């Protein structure tokens, strides 16, 4: 991580023990990172507000949260917080930790629209895998495989257009952005969504971006998205 | 497509064995009861009642009775002196009757010493005298000098309830089996018919060679198991008595009236005159289906009249179905009753139907009798009512039972889910705290104050679980269980609900056969919250159903579009596939539900094929109305 010296991470979890565990984990991986914590949804919103405009690079969020200190923790509160954050900070990178990730299914459309990295980590994942998801989120990658319906491909027309421009006409992202009349950033965002859909995720010993693109093309052909 | 149909048929047949069994047992019991004769008495009473119900007939102009009543007997004495009888016969002969029958057995006649006077009556070729032959020990034969064709037996056969329903037309003489004798009824009928038309001689039947026949009219012969009878002694032949209905079936003149000349000579000319006794002490009343009281003398009149009128006027003779037809008839009513009782009409409709069916059964049976067919009413009634009412009641009970079972199953599943959820909550909360604590304790790197704080937290967490579960159970009625057992919370914004229903439904096994289904899905947000829980539930069900239909029917589909479009105050839910679509035009339960929902929301529903192939399922409803609710 080139900017790991200035890395800022907000961890939201109401369990002090879990919070401690997560922080330990993150500290080991990113020794120089500045780690902020919040134990309620209210505190999380406040913390983010305080950090403006220098927002954290990543929010690690537990879904089951109390609204304020003393109230019961509920997945509902976490989901509300998540929706609010995605609306307010459209490019915020997020990793959602939960024991019940399926609760996220109903806000999948919002997640698809979110411009930042978004990964889902079930609490039962190993530390290594968990750190992987955190790393992906930091890199703006979307990983929602765990909350998707299984055997089907839900694809947006825009994503198909990106695929066609890229693999039929061999266009670069900038050219695609021009042709589609969107920003280059949006095109990159589309790519993360497509890669998430096709389950093309970076390996731990990461290859360069080109290989990912080729993998994406292979998978897209396999699934019949392009001929 | 053929395999499922075949499987369906097989399942239906297999089911028949289960639910058809009670009905089959009822039918079997009724048939068995009838075969063993347990129903004979009741069936015969029903038969009598039906016969009495028929409209009255006018007095028979062919048969005239001359009866010695109580005062006649007192005047002439009993047994009747033969000179009185001879005088009476001589008097009547002067009015030229066609035939005269003497329904008085020889032992009821007091002979004079020389015993010649009565024997002299044989000179009248149109006269038939009586004898009793069927009881071998007590035979009372006619004077031997009478020619055979002037003698007929007057024995009667009573059923077990003492009623007369059968007539014996001929019989082998029990004390001399080679000798075949005819009844007075048959002798009188034959003599009279031949006197009208020489061709109307007694002959063997054509349809049934053992039956008797005059001209083209065959007298339907009773068999031991005909009609309601079970192993009846029908040696003979015998026929069923079809008594003449009406208050005055025959003209009756007493001896006193003859002696006093109180009659019109034309009453007797060319008629069948039967002389007998009406005094009740000598001729007690014997029950029959006639509308007026009858004794054996009057039964004789009914019998003769029945045959003569049948031959000359085509009056009905009563016939019965063969056993096969009778049992087919009974079993059919039983089966129709089962089918009706199991139909999907409301229990009230079904009971009314059973009532109408019963009325129809009685009506058909009565109509049949009026055209001469005695068909089994009573056993058919038994199976119809028992199966009809039984199945209606049981089907309702069964329905209640099954829905209760379903509910129990649902509760059990819910309980299972609650247990799992409780475990999850414990596992993800306190257990984690506990294991972390254990690890720290083993590593010996925990301060006592930290230990206390952690334990306190654990305490709070465990208490929190109880609260959490309580809240879960409180919101149950606001949730919806999807087909695959997943519970969703109906209080969420509608478009999120839709997305949840969509996601979970596509996970169902119906969709597994679409290797890759490319989907576009988008639900415009609806922020209004004015739909009530039931309406939300119905909308979710509609979406679930529409998606399931794609899974079930959209063969070869590769694209699926699921849209929720908000436009100008209207919201449109669309499910479009490019599969082959449903081929049957039948409107399924789901479609009906959708129409009902559309009506309820003041919206529109359509389901149609789209070009080039595929199906569109669409529900549009106004958002403005949502606010008013």
Provide an overview of this structure:
The complex is a heterodimer of chains A (227) and B (629). By secondary structure, chain A is α/β, with parallel strands linked by helices. Chain A has helices at residues 16-29, 41-51, 75-88, 108-113, 127-138, 157-168, 173-180, 184-197, 209-222; strands at 8-12, 34-38, 58-62, 94-98, 118-122, 142-143, 152-154. Chain A has 2 domains: 4-147, Response regulator (Rossmann fold, 3-Layer(aba) Sandwich), CATH 3.40.50; 157-222, Winged helix-like DNA-binding domain superfamily/Winged helix DNA-binding domain (Arc Repressor Mutant, subunit A), CATH 1.10.10.10. Helix content of chain A is 46%, strand content 13%. Chain A has a 6-stranded parallel beta sheet, sandwiched between helices. In chain A, helix 7 packs across helix 8. The longest helix of chain A has 14 residues, at 16-29. Chain B is 46% helix and 17% strand. Chain B is built from 17 helices and 24 strands. Residues 625-629 of chain B have low confidence and may be disordered. The A-B interface holds A 15-18, 20-21, 64, 72-74, 99-100, 105-109, 123, 148-157, 223-225 and B 424, 427-429, 432-433, 436-437, 453-454, 457, 464, 467-468, 471, 488, 492, 495-497, 499-500, 503-504, 506-507, 511-512, 514-523, 560.
Short account of what is shown:
The complex is a heterodimer of chains A (227) and B (629). Chain A is α/β, with parallel strands linked by helices and 227 residues long.
Which secondary structure elements does this structure contain, and how are they paired or packed?
The complex is a heterodimer of chains A (227) and B (629).
Chain A: E1 8-12, H1 16-29, E2 34-38, H2 41-51, E3 58-62, H3 75-88, E4 94-98, H4 108-113, E5 118-122, H5 127-138, E6 142-143, E7 152-154, H6 157-168, H7 173-180, H8 184-197, H9 209-222
Parallel strand pairs in A: 1-2, 1-3, 3-4, 4-5, 5-6
Helix pairs in contact in A: 7-8
Chain B: H1 2-19, H2 21-35, H3 40-53, E1 60-68, H4 70-76, E2 80-81, H5 82-93, E3 99-102, E4 109-110, E5 127-131, E6 151-153, E7 166-168, E8 170-173, E9 176-182, H6 184-196, E10 202-204, E11 212-214, E12 217-219, E13 238-240, E14 250-254, H7 255-259, E15 272-277, H8 296-313, E16 319-320, H9 323-342, H10 347-370, E17 373-374, H11 378-428, H12 430-442, H13 448-474, E18 479-481, E19 487-489, H14 494-506, E20 517-523, H15 533-553, E21 559-567, E22 570-577, H16 589-600, E23 604-609, E24 615-622, H17 623-628
Parallel strand pairs in B: 1-14, 1-15, 2-4, 3-5, 3-15, 5-6, 16-17, 20-21
Antiparallel strand pairs in B: 7-13, 8-9, 10-11, 11-12, 18-19, 21-22, 22-24, 23-24
Helix pairs in contact in B: 2-9, 2-11, 6-8, 9-11, 10-11, 12-13, 14-15, 15-16
């Amino acid at each position: 991580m080139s900017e790991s010296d200035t890395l800022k991470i907000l961890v939201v979890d109401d369990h002090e023990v879990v919070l401690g565990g997560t922080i330990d984990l993150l500290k080991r991986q990113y020794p120089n990172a500045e780690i902020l914590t919040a134990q309620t949804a209210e505190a999380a919103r406040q913390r983010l507000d305080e950090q403006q405009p220098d927002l954290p690079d990543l929010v690690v969020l537990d879904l089951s949260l109390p609204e304020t200190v003393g109230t019961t923790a509920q997945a509902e509160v976490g989901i509300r917080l998540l929706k609010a954050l995605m609306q307010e900070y459209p490019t915020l990178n997020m990793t959602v930790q939960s024991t019940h990730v399926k609760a996220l299914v109903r806000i999948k459309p919002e997640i698809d629209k979110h411009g930042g990295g978004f990964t889902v980590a079930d609490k039962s994942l190993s530390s290594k895998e968990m750190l992987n998801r955190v790393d992906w989120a930091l890199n703006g990658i979307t990983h929602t495989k765990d909350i998707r319906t299984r055997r089907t491909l839900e694809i947006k027309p825009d994503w198909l257009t990106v695929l066609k421009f890229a693999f039929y006409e061999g266009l670069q992202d900038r050219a695609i952005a021009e042709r589609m009349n969107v920003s280059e950033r949006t095109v990159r965002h589309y790519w993360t969504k497509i890669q998430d859909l096709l389950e093309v995720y970076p390996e731990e010993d990461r290859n360069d971006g080109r290989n990912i693109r080729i993998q994406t093309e292979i998978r897209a052909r396999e699934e019949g998205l392009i001929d | 497509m053929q395999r499922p149909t075949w499987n369906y048929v097989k399942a239906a047949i297999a089911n028949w064995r289960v639910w058809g069994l009670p009905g089959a047992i009822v039918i079997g019991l009724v048939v068995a009861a009838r075969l063993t004769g347990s129903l004979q008495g009741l069936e015969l009473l029903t038969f009598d009642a039906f016969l009495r119900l028929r409209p009255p007939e006018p007095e028979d102009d062919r048969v005239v009775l001359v009866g010695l009543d109580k005062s006649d007997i007192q005047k002439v004495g009993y047994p009747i002196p033969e000179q009185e009888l001879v005088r009476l016969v001589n008097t009547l002969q002067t009015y030229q009757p066609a035939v005269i029958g003497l329904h008085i057995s020889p032992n009821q006649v007091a002979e004079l010493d020389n015993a010649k006077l009565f024997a002299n009556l044989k000179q009248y070729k149109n006269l038939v005298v009586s004898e009793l032959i069927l009881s071998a020990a007590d035979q009372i034969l006619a004077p031997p000098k009478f020619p055979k064709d002037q003698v007929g037996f007057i024995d009667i056969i009573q059923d077990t309830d003492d009623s007369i329903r059968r007539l014996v037309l001929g019989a082998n003489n029990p004390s001399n089996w080679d000798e075949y004798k005819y009844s007075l009824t048959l002798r009188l009928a034959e003599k009279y018919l031949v006197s009208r038309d020489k061709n109307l001689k007694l002959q063997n039947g054509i349809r049934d060679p053992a039956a008797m026949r005059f001209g083209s009219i065959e007298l339907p012969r009773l068999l031991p198991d005909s009609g309601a009878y079970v192993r009846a002694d029908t040696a003979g032949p015998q026929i069923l008595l079809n008594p003449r209905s009406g208050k005055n079936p025959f003209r009756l003149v007493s001896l006193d009236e003859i002696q006093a000349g109180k009659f019109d000579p034309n009453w007797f000319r060319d008629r069948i005159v039967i002389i007998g006794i009406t005094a009740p002490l000598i001729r007690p009343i014997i029950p029959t289906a006639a509308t007026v009281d009858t004794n054996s003398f009057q039964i004789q009149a009914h019998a003769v009249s029945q045959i003569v009128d049948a031959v000359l006027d085509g009056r009905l003779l009563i016939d019965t179905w063969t056993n096969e037809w009778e049992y087919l008839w009974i079993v059919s009513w039983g089966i129709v009753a089962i089918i009706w009782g199991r139909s999907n009409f409301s229990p009230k409709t079904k009971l009314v139907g059973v009532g109408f069916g019963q009325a129809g059964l009685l009506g058909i049976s009565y109509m049949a009798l009026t055209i001469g067919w005695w068909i089994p009413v009573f056993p058919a009634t038994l199976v119809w009512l028992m199966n009809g009412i039984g199945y209606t009641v049981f089907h309702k009970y069964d329905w209640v039972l099954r829905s209760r079972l379903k509910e129990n199953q649902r509760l059990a599943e819910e309980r299972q889910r609650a247990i799992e959820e409780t475990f999850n909550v414990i596992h993800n909360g306190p257990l984690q705290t506990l294991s972390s604590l254990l690890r720290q304790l083993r590593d010996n790197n925990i301060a006592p104050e930290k230990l206390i704080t952690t334990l306190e937290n654990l305490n709070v967490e465990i208490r929190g679980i109880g609260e959490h579960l309580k809240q879960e159970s409180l919101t149950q009625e606001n949730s919806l269980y999807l087909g695959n057992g997943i519970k969703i919370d109906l209080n969420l914004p509608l478009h999120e609900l839709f997305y949840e229903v969509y996601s979970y439904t596509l996970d169902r096994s119906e969709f597994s056969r679409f290797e890759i289904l490319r989907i576009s899905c988008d639900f415009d947000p609806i922020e209004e919250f004015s739909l009530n829980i039931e309406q939300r539930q119905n909308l979710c069900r509609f979406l679930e159903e529409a998606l399931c239909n794609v899974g079930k029917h959209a063969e070869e589909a590769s694209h699926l579009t699921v849209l929720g479009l908000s436009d100008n105050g209207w919201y449109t839910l669309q499910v479009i596939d490019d599969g082959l679509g449903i081929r049957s035009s039948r409107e399924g339960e789901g479609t009906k539900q959708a129409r009902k929902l559309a009506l309820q929301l003041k919206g529109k529903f359509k389901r149609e094929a789209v070009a080039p192939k595929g199906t569109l399922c669409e529900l549009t409803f106004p958002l403005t109305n949502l606010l008013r609710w």
